[in-house]
Amino acid sequence: MYFGTNNMKKAAQMLPTRYLQMIFPIFNTNRTREIFGVNPTVIPTREEANEVHIYVHEYNEQEIQHYQLATVADCKALLTQTNKIFWINIDGLRKADVDAVSKLFNIHFLITEDILSVAQRPKMDEVDDHLFCLLNMLYFNDKISAVEVEQVSMVIGNNYVISFQEDASRDVFNQLRDKLKLPRTKLRQSGTDYLCYTMLDLIVDNYFLVMEKLSDRLEALEEEIIKYGNTRSLARINSLRKELIVLKRNILPVRDLVNGFLRSESVLIHERTHKYYKDVYDHIVQAADLVENYRDMMLNMQDLYMSKVNMRMNEVMKVMAIVTCLLAPATVIGGIFGMNFDRIPYIHDKNGFFIAVGLMLLIPVWMVWIFKKRGWF
């Protein structure tokens, strides 16, 4: 009884996914758990950043300054200046620092909770005298062929935009930093609404770079399926399907986010900048359409793979059926002359063996000619 209980425990532990991982290491469920492991009823814990970097771009039409602050408390000096625009970029999230910034700029605690959230859906809110938007920057990791996600939160005030990033080592805002250095540009002459538009535009444009890399892998996978169509191709289909789910989950909600800026009646969004947000909206709609097209391509590749497997199976079955048919005459002849009767034609003839073997060879050759004539192979 004890032996049987141990066997049952071992059998329960060896799930089908475990067998797949043992046979094919590419079938790993960790990525699946990462993608589908979002439960809004369970509050996930965010790891505190080891370091927090605070960069400030202070500018107007005539001048610009760029510097780094040592602590969050140093941001207090920025509140007294109203003739300039401030972009405060905070790399690395720690609850104490986010709470301090929220208290300093009078940011609502609901926004603070969203900034510190994990795997939050892209959204746009108007709370008190602030506009808030949260979305994800996407990167493609060539080493593991996976889409990586970094959450970005932006709080728009009267003369400042505060951006919160998880990773201090990378972002897509280098073009924005370069534009700020140029005098008399639209960015330097506009307010925080245009600055927010520029940041959204850079994030959305980077989506196309990620999708382009996925598109290259889809094309390579399609050619591989047509040529080979083996088990490794099925694993790659499954892997790319998961990455498309990540794209869909992070890109499609951004359409509602940008639409929220277009419909907003906040004084922070000027009417002259609506056309720029409309341009971002057009881009995100195009990105969403591409994601749907890639999804259709993936479904077609799955059908192509199944057709390839079925075709190969049909070829194997056809060969086996032909071989079986060719061996049938020999089986029949051998069975007849192997019967235990006293009187069988040619059983005592000195050429009987050669006649039987000749029939066993000639009849299959004649059958091959008939099959070839009818185009069966």
CATH architecture verdict of the largest domain:
2-Layer Sandwich
Strand order of the largest sheet: 2-1-3-7-6-5-4
Order of helices and strands: HHHEEEHHEEEEHHHHHH
Question: Which range does the strand content fall in?
Answer: 5-15%
In CATH terms, the superfamily of the largest domain is CorA soluble domain-like
Going by helix content, strand content and strand pairing, the class is alpha+beta
- The total number of structural domains is 2
Helix content percent band: 55-70%
Q: Report how far the terminal alpha carbons are from each other.
A: 58 Å
Let me know the average pLDDT: 85
Determine Rg (CA atoms, Å): 34 Å
Runs in which pLDDT lies below 50 for 5 or more consecutive residues are 1-5, 7-27
The name of the CATH topology of the largest domain is Beta Polymerase, domain 2
CATH class assignment of the largest domain: Alpha Beta
Number of strands: 7
Q: Please work out how many helical segments DSSP would assign.
A: 11
Could you say which overall geometry the principal axes of the C-alpha atoms support?
A: rod-shaped
Largest beta-sheet characterization: 7 strands, mixed
